[in-house]
Amino acid sequence: MRRGSIIQLTAIALVAGAICTVVALAVPWLPLAAGQEAVRIDFAYWFVTIICIVVFSVVASVLTYSVWKFRAGPDDDSDGPPTHGNTRLEIAWTAIPAVLVTAISVVSAVILAQNGQAGSNPLIVKVHAQQFAWTFIYPNGQSYGYLTVPTGRHVKLELTTSDVIHSFWVPQLSQKQDAVPGITTSIVITPTRVGTYPVICTELCGLGHALMRSHVDIVSAVDYAKWVSQGSAASTGPPGLAVFQQNGCGGCHTFTPAAATGKVGPDLDNLAQEAKQANRGALAAFIEESIVKPQAYIAPGFPDVMPHIFGTQIPPDKLKQLVQYLAKGPKQ
Ligand code: CUA
Questions:
Q1: Ligand 1: does its nearest atom lie under 6 Å from the Cβ of 118?
Q2: What ligand 1 atom has the least distance to the C-alpha of 210?
Q3: CA-CA distance, 175 to 140, in Å (whole number)?
Q4: What's the pLDDT tens digit per position in 234-248?
């Protein structure tokens, strides 16, 4: 092979590689990693991406060079000369991909094994999925409609569901795990970056699937300790507030006294007006029916996605507290 050809082939490969590298680096393809596991998974992505860029550059270079140098003349209808192939080349293009694919398997297997490690003292949070809300239950028995976790500690999420298959996903934590009826599945997260990130259901689970969202607050260890102690203090507020929070109502509804800003369902600050418009009895009766039997009256402009399980999930005394709390309206 002539020296000039090698220089030309290398030049094309470098140009192709440079274009791919710019595309890979200039576009933020991956969400900002907020956990140790996500950092490892991002490493696997980049490991594979770099291999792909190198292989693509070599292939693109040889292809481009061949099209350019060995193009048939305009009137050349003859066949090309017969060839016997090239044993050395064939061994090379078999062996190199085999080594690369093996390397990717080993890196992925090591990362998967590391990401499954919860250490000896993980914080265990039970994650309960239902159509169409998430509930997070802490070791002290408190439950919330959103997840709060500290940085620098392994957190083991144990997933269950009361109806169909759902799937837990926080893009910034990279991993997904299904909640499957009848069994408990788990996932380990080790948060590193303080912030608020979305919790998304990523398994089509019914009409309200797209609305089945919550959030995770990643806080420092000190703020987490404060939050845990406030959790017991919160129960000194209106009793209805605790019921509101435990059932994840704020995930879908706005209600000023609970600092809830959900937009999926009707704005609960306007319940008095809504009750008049619906004309389904007194305010308290209307609220109770809307919680226990949400399909009885669908507020105009909203989909029929409110879970039907609150009638059995919320005990009668708690339901009463919740109804009273909501009936008092936005100024309390
Ligand atoms: Cu739950 Cu989709």
A1: no
A2: 2
A3: 26
A4: 556 788 887 887 777
